[in-house]
Amino acid sequence: MHLLTKAIEPVAQTHEAPATVDAGYVPLPTDRPATQDGGVVWLTGLPGAGKSTLAYAVSGMLTSHGMRSAVLDGDVLRRRLNRDLGFTTEDRYENVRRVAEVAALFANEGLIVIVAVISPLALMRARARAIIGERFREVYVKARIETCEARDPKGMYRQARLGDRRDFTGVSAPFEVPLNADWIVDTETQTVGQCIAQLVNDVERQFVASWDTRERGERRGVHKTDVI
What is the C-alpha R_g of the chain? Predict the structure, then answer.
């Protein structure tokens, strides 16, 4: 699921405006091309945590800021590049390896690649980091299994509980919570807009080299309406 829907709204609804970036940060203007280093932002988390939703939204905002970006969505890749793979541990390792190799190729061409793949085991994510190198950023999209199961946008948790879906992460297959993630995005306690703003902030801090010669105070920031 990759539309900005209620699928990743926090459990306790709030009416506050989305968080804005800190005063010391000035993101890209929308009217000038960016000079950027390629990078890979690897979103990991339970099914239903909001990985795909965030990946497409962040990529769209980066593009609007003049950056080149691409999304590698695990669900889409399993219907195409990785359609020969199942959900055994061995196949999951191979799934992650292939995604990491593709992401590395894109990053080498200067793209910011947003990867949305469960990648449930720490060693899987470590191998992805080894393939991609220093441009790899692991992002834990944090949400408790109770919250993800309550969302269940595709009905997969229900199927897993009924025994109709085997090797389902969080139910009949393990998920190892990242202990040293580069960034953490909490989709339970933050709104969609806050999560997007946080990730765009982090990406542009990490991967943007320079973009124009105007004075810092003249550059535009992200407006609240950008991330609602």
Answer: 18
Residue 184 lies in a domain: yes
Structural domain range at position 153: 37-210
Domain CATH number, residue 131: 3.40.50.300
User: What string of H, E and C letters represents the secondary structure of the chain?
Assistant: CCCCCHHHCCCCCCCCCCCCCCCCCCCCCCCCCCEECCEEEEEECCCCCCHHHHHHHHHHHHHHCCCCEEEEEHHHHHHCCCCCCCCCHHHHHHHHHHHHHHHHHHHHCCCEEEEECCCCCHHHHHHHHHHHCCCEEEEEEECCHHHHHHHCCCCHHHHHHCCCCCCCECCCECCCCCCCCCEEEECCCCCHHHHHHHHHHHHHHHHEEECCCCCHHHCCCCCHHHCC
Q: Which tens digits make up the pLDDT trace of 106-129?
A: 999 999 999 999 999 999 999 999
- Residues marked active site are found at 119
| pLDDT higher than threshold 90 for residue 25 | no
Q: Flag whether the pTM goes above 0.90.
A: no
In a domain, 29, yes or no: no
Asked if residue 211 lies in contact with residue 7, where contact means CB atoms within 8 angstroms, the answer is: no
pLDDT in the model for residue 16: 35
Task: List, for residues 135-154, the tens digit of each pLDDT value.
Answer: 999 999 999 999 999 998 88
Does any domain span residue 215?
no
Answer whether residue 103 is part of any domain. yes
| CA-based nearest residue to 116, from 227, 8, 219 | 8
Instruction: Give the number of domains in the chain.
Output: 1
| Residue 145 identity (one-letter amino acid) | I
